[in-house]
Amino acid sequence: MVSRRKSAASKSNIKKAQAVWEMMSPEHRVTMRRKSEPVLKKMGRKAKEAVEGIKEKMPGD
Fold it and tell me: What would the pLDDT profile of 27-37 be if each residue is shown by its tens digit?
């Protein structure tokens, strides 16, 4: 039950992240990506795959 709620929350967070990303400048995007990499290593494979999917959709660099 907890995991289901968590996944729903992460989906909405991903949508928010995409919206924020679209407003960001390219320079900011590069720094964000650098900051997110160590966090992704902690989060594990599923989270990484989700983020990779977002990165492919993202415009820029």
Answer: 776 777 777 66
Range of the domain at 31: 15-57
Does residue 7 fall inside a structural domain? no
> Which residues, at least 6 apart from 40, have a Cβ–Cβ distance to it below 8 Å?
47, 48, 51
DSSP string over 1-61: -HHHHHHHHHHHHHHHHHHHHHHS-HHHHHHHHHHHHHHHHHH-HHHHHHHHHHHHH----
In a domain, 10, yes or no: no
